[in-house]
Amino acid sequence: MRSTTRLGWPAAHRALALLLLALGMLALLGPVQASAAEDDPYKIAGNVQFEGEAIEGVTITVDGPGGAQVVETGPDGRWNVGVPEAAEYTVTLDVDTLPEGVTLDDPEDDSPETKEVTPNVPFAPKAVNFFIGEGDRESTAFGAQLAQRLVQGVNFGLMLGLAAVGLSLVYGTTGISNFAHGEMVTFGAVMALWIGGTAFIGASLWIALPAAILISGLFGLLMDVVIWRPLRHRSVGVVQLMIVSIGLSLAIRYLFQYFIGGGTEQLPGSSPERIDIVGPIRMTKVDLISMGIAIAVIVAFALWLLYSRLGKATRAISDNPGLAAASGIDVDFVVRVVWVVAAALAGLAGILYAYYRPGIKWDMGTQVLLLMFAAVTLGGLGTAFGALIGALIIGIIVETSSLFIPADLRFASALAILIIILLVRPQGILGRRERIG
Amino acid sequence: MSSDAAVPRAKSTGLHQGEAAPGCAKVDPILVADGVRRTFGGMTAVDVEHVEIPRGAITALIGPNGAGKTTFFNLLTGFDTPDAGTWSFEGRSLAGVPAYKVARMGLVRTFQLTKALGLLTVLENMKLGATGQRGERFFPSLLPSIWRGQDDSIEERAHELLARFKLDTKAADYAASLSGGQRKLLEMARALMSEPKLVMLDEPMAGVNPALTQSLLDHILGLKDQGMTVLFVEHDMHMVRHIADWVVVMAEGKIVAEGDPSSVMADPAVIDAYLGAHQDVDLGVVTGRVAGTSPQQADAVRDQIEAEALEELEQEENR
Amino acid sequence: MDWSQILNQSASSIISTTTIAYALAAVGLGVHFGQAGLLNMGVAGFMAVGAYGYAISILSFGFPWWLAALTALFASVVFALILGIPTLRLRGDYLAIVTIAAAEVLRLLLLTVAFDDVTGSADGLFGFSGSFQDSNPFPDGEYGFGPWQFNETTLWPVVVGVFLLALSVLLVWALMRSPWGRVLRGIREDEDAVRALGKNVFAYKMQALVLGGVIIAAGGIVYTLGSNASPGVYVTSLTFFVYTIVLLGGAATIFGPVLGSVLFWVLQYFLSNLMPALVDAGVLPFMTANQAGMVRFILVGVGLMLLVVFMPQGIMGNKKEMTFVK
């Protein structure tokens, strides 16, 4: 899902790779100069790209009649060599010269780094394409990768936490397992797109993002007024409420697709350029800003929950709704505030997620809904701070697990760990044992 | 049965050995608990050193709100697991025995908040109570010939019990349509379908319409007449005084007193631990059994007690 | 606008492998959710076990189709046991979380390139209907009448599907009228009360989970019998669609899920043909053809909300009879 091209990579590894490259060149240079030349009649050429972006400086070796030749891709990702004969040549891409996070990935081929080609038409370049995919090579030091992944995991976890605390508060105060929470996440991103996207209103991000969060909060208010409050007053059971939220989730999700289509839209200001932070850790500016915002908002939220009158009332209702009502707390009002806060936090999480993925898609929220549920369950159903801890754990598991298992299974790893933890400690990390029976 | 209800029945006496004190030995105990302790996150809910429940008698477990009575019930019946302790029923240890097996051994309970199965009919509720049904096993259930005969005899017994509990006209109705008191009756009747040895009733009077209290009391006394042992939790001291042969008092999770109703209720330790409301009002006044009180007086007292009980119940429910 | 074609298409969906497969899934979910009160949110997972269990047994192990189907059903029993053993002792929402997570893990495992040899990853599996069609007893030719037209290859999976559906409905009917069904409905109402009456609640819930799971998996098998197995089908939305079907027909009824599936698919086909036709005819100038295709999915969501609030007992249910687990 995460698909930025990671062009920058640690200096130490660049040096190591250059050294290897140099050794390779030394071994090969002799014969290349001896027999191959620019005016050879047959051409073999290619274009190394990852998700539409050219990759420069990748070493390609072409071996066959006339000897081996080594070329590097240019700034446009292209390479070509001339060969003397219409015979079979072996083209090898040096995987170590690919940028970090990118590797060869061809499920049909056991050795995706080599291709056999036979150029047969003079001067018409024979194209050789390698399947470049996301992935990690073992050549990068494990510790450095782990550090990078941990930081990414914290980033993802903080973002997930923003959304999960709202989900948890709603569960705690109303008993609803809100399946439409994923759509509340998408909603924030879509609003940011409509207000800030250049193809739409095109407002500056300083206006677009706060406005999107505000509208997300209003969206929460609207849902409470139109759906949840009337259902509360009909005293509809929690399972029914959950199914209502499923219906709502389906309806909103397909409404998004109705309006923005099935493709991916980008928010302005998204840039893949990475800067050095500490040691091997590199992040984009957007990542840094995103983490900063998430931490600031979470701290503010925690203070609100711990010290404000409303926050205390919220926790009181989560603990014991009957007692809270009996002690004069206006449950209806507090629940309404919870919906607004949860929706605004989800909206913010959606915006951050849109930069993280990157891109806005109609079902982006649904993709992380289960991870949010996992975070909430892991932390202990209905506890706000538990959801935060759960989210960080899930974020880190998701990001680091791709060091050990295929990258397309990282969400699965988080869910599998959720299931395992439920077996050992069903009440979650901060939950009380009494709540589960 | 109800014709002789106005005549006070003889209470069972001579149940204990030695002095009536917390944890005293019984002549013939059916249930024995030793060192049973249950804590909820640092708070000790139950900490019972030793208690024996006498066979063939009606024992009341009383105590103020939060004394741990219901928790103790849950522990004894396998619905909750204590942190420590041993407890046995008819000499067989119940530690680690799941709730359903406890019930099969003949120790059946009811719940404070009635658990009538609302969307089953009253008759289905009753039939569910019978044990050892062949048709309740997965594969045999597919062949009616295996279970039809047994099911018919169960149904017959259910109708008899329903008639005794005056629910026979409701047999085909959903249990959800019954009043609170009728549900209590149904729950008790359903428990009897399993032919238990010990019936544990958790607040059988809570939320019951006063018009039904007498009938319920009679049924509880009837259980003893049929040779069953009864252990019940109750807030209402007057009901306790009226029907219990033996009283066990809990406060803050511990057994603080034991004895026959009259001496226990005179015990200063009990009065100290349990400042229950309306101790000065005899149950007879409420049920209208005591002569010399006008119906209006009785109604007034009853209404007051009802209102307070309802409030208490609501609080319990909300918790 | 060609009304006769739209109506014909809609009517033809009454008897299709899709409708039958969803009806089977709905009958199974009816046992879980309607009768036992089990919140199985992993319907897609059980169907995937059926579909892939069948396809993989044929392609990887070379089983004949009937043995492959039995293997798939056995796999669904194992899947149910794995999900049930840890969760059925806990509160109901834990089963919901674990089943939905397990279904998603399974889908991701089917999708990953790591097991491409076995699962075909994103492409799914195909080309395994040979053994099934070899056993086709119908001679070549055209069968059916009106909108229901089949040839021998399309008829055979429908016949097998209808047979399995009838068998499942009969099985559920026989079980639910027995004392076993009585205990199960008691558990739906209040499992502690049933436990206090000496019934092994865990065992009953497990039996119900396995029974419903096997029927749902049979739905997955029917869905793939004559065609292919594709991971894109077994998403959480599938689970929610089956819930909509079950609630539409009546969750606590025996035949309601079948009726629900028929109505659901007739409506889906009707809308999927009608809406683009309306756009073409210029009736909906504010909508593109793509957007017109979305409308029916939006309506499923809205319909599910309205159903569960205003008609939780479904079409065939008795208003008093349908309840929801606490």
Automatic annotation (TrEMBL), chain A:
User: Record's Pfam families?
Assistant: BPD_transp_2
Record localization: Cell membrane
CC annotations in GO: plasma membrane
For this entry, list what GO says about its biological process: D-alanine transmembrane transport; L-alanine transport; L-isoleucine import across plasma membrane
Arranged from A to Z, the UniProt key words for this protein are: Amino-acid transport, Cell inner membrane, Cell membrane, Membrane, Transmembrane, Transmembrane helix, Transport
InterPro entries attached to this UniProt entry: ABC_transp_permease, BCAA_transport_permease
Q: What are the recorded GO MF terms, alphabetically? A: L-isoleucine transmembrane transporter activity; L-leucine transmembrane transporter activity; L-phenylalanine transmembrane transporter activity; L-valine transmembrane transporter activity
Q: Which residues cross the membrane?
A: 156-180, 192-223, 235-256, 288-307, 337-356, 368-397, 403-424
How does it sit in the bilayer? Answer: Multi-pass membrane protein
Q: Which family does it belong to?
A: Belongs to the binding-protein-dependent transport system permease family. LivHM subfamily.
Q: What is this protein called?
A: Unannotated protein
The source organism is: freshwater metagenome
From TrEMBL, chain B:
Is Amino-acid biosynthesis among this UniProt entry's keywords? no
What Pfam families does UniProt report for this protein, alphabetically?
ABC_tran, BCA_ABC_TP_C
Q: Which organism is it from?
A: freshwater metagenome
Q: Which residues form the ABC transporter domain?
A: 31-277
What protein name is recorded for this chain? Unannotated protein
| Any one GO CC term of the record | plasma membrane
Record-linked SMART domains = AAA
> CDD domains given for it?
ABC_Mj1267_LivG_branched (cd03219)
Keyword tags: ATP-binding, Nucleotide-binding, Transport
The cross-references to Gene3D superfamilies, in alphabetical order and at most eight, read: P-loop containing nucleotide triphosphate hydrolases
Residue segments, region Disordered: 1-21
From the UniProt record, which GO molecular function terms apply? ATP binding; ATP hydrolysis activity
What PROSITE patterns does the entry give? ABC_TRANSPORTER_1, ABC_TRANSPORTER_2
TrEMBL record, chain C:
Q: Recite the UniProt keywords alphabetically.
A: Cell membrane, Membrane, Transmembrane, Transmembrane helix
According to the UniProt entry, its GO molecular function terms are: branched-chain amino acid transmembrane transporter activity
**What membrane topology does the UniProt entry give?**
Multi-pass membrane protein
Q: Where are the transmembrane segments?
A: 12-31, 38-59, 65-85, 94-115, 155-176, 208-226, 232-255, 262-287, 293-312
Q: Which GO terms describe its cellular component?
A: plasma membrane
Protein location: Cell membrane
What InterPro entries does the record point to?
A: ABC_transp_permease, LivM-like
What PANTHER family does the entry give?
Answer: HIGH-AFFINITY BRANCHED-CHAIN AMINO ACID TRANSPORT PROTEIN BRAE (PTHR30482:SF10), HIGH-AFFINITY BRANCHED-CHAIN AMINO ACID TRANSPORT SYSTEM PERMEASE (PTHR30482)
Q: Which protein are we looking at?
A: Unannotated protein
Species of origin:
freshwater metagenome
